[in-house]
Amino acid sequence: MTHKTYITFGQGHHHTIGEQIFDKDCVAVIESEGPKQGREKAFEMFDKYFCFEYPQAYWNESKLRYFPRGYIEVKA
Description:
By secondary structure, the chain is an alpha+beta fold. Helices cover 16% and strands 36% of the residues.
C-alpha cells in the first residue's frame, strides 16, 4: 500500500526539479511506503527548504484552498 506525504512551501521556497516547479502556490505529493520514507524523500528533494510536511493521516483537504496551483505529484 502506498502512503502519501504532502509538502507545503513558504514565500521564499522555490524549487525547479526537472520540468516541475514547486513553490508557495502548490502542494507537493510524495508517494512512498510510509510516513518516514515520505519525510526522508522530502528532505532529499527539497533539503530544509519547505514549510510543512503532512503525513497522509494529518492532511486536511480544506487546506488546498490556499494553494491555487493545487497538487503536484513528485516525479522521482
